[in-house]
Design brief:
3-stranded antiparallel beta sheet, extended
């Protein structure tokens, strides 16, 4: 199987994963993910107490997750002997099937699996690992430098164990998406050929190439994430607005005051423009 075909397969899987993540935010809602996976395996309605015991969370937290899943129409509720029982809805069944489909091993040949990780993760952790891989690919590929220090990746991923799994799994053939390098004696990574191919198929790269304002702000802030760009623009706009007011109170030259207000307005306008960019 050629690297182009492998990269295309990975790209399709990661893009589907991003779509599923928009329904259940995996990084912030691991309890919801665990619930739907457990319900899919049991195939029968399960009581709230059993869910709390199996998942290892409080009843209150489970009920909160169930309310959110019900709002998304992923579960159904029934009463069994006076106790609330939960099962997956048809929409929930379809959701989990798509999720499981993502992690069927990709084959390089009949006797070789593409994805071989040193430590086999459960599905919930594997989902989060894949999303973090996507974040690394996009942030590294769109950075001004073309590489990121491993220390920067630790801040990006937030979990050193998951980062270690990603680096061990995707810096060696046949799954070499990243390449380890040294920058001034420090460990860093850049995208390998397969990683570049995956990047080019990502929605972030598409917008980066087509939208000059987004491209400028990614270069300026060093972040491809819209929410981080908007936060930077909001803070910068507020700083210039506050500075302009102080200059006004201090009877500073009119030109300086005007420049301050104009700069604040420019950053505010950029923030409004960026809010309409849909790449998250």
């Amino acid at each position: 199987m050629s690297s182009e075909v492998i990269a295309d397969t990975y790209s399709r899987k990661i893009m589907l994963l991003k779509t599923l993540d928009s329904i259940i935010d995996f990084s912030k809602a691991s309890s919801q993910l665990s619930i739907v996976l457990y319900l899919y395996n049991t195939k029968t309605p399960v009581g709230v107490s059993e869910l709390a015991r199996v998942i290892g969370d409080t009843r209150k937290s489970i009920l909160d997750s169930l309310r959110k899943l019900e709002k998304k129409e992923l579960i159904s509720k029934t009463m069994v002997n006076g106790e609330l029982h939960i099962s997956l809805s048809q929409k929930g069944e379809e959701y989990v099937k798509k999720l499981i489909e993502l992690f069927h091993p990709i084959k390089v040949s009949d006797d070789q699996q593409l994805l071989q990780v040193p430590v086999r993760l459960n599905l919930a952790k594997e989902v989060i690992t894949s999303l973090n891989l996507y974040k690394i690919i996009v942030k590294t590929g769109l950075s001004r430098k073309g590489w990121l220090l491993v220390d920067e990746l630790k801040n990006l991923v937030g979990d050193e164990k998951i980062l270690t799994i990603i680096l061990d799994s995707f810096t060696m053939p046949p799954t070499r998406i990243l390449r380890r390098i040294k920058i001034a004696g420090r460990d860093a990574v850049e995208l390998d050929k397969m990683g570049q191919e995956i990047l080019r198929k990502s929605p972030h790269y598409t917008v980066f190439r087509s939208n000059s304002i987004y491209r400028l702000l990614v270069r300026l802030t060093g972040s491809p994430w819209v929410f981080e760009i908007m936060r930077f623009l909001s803070i910068t706009s507020f700083v210039f607005l506050a500075l302009s007011i102080l200059l006004l109170v201090a009877n500073a030259p009119t030109v300086l005051i005007a420049v301050g207000f104009l700069t604040a307005l420019i950053f505010l306008s950029l923030g409004i423009t960026v809010s309409y960019i849909k790449v998250e």
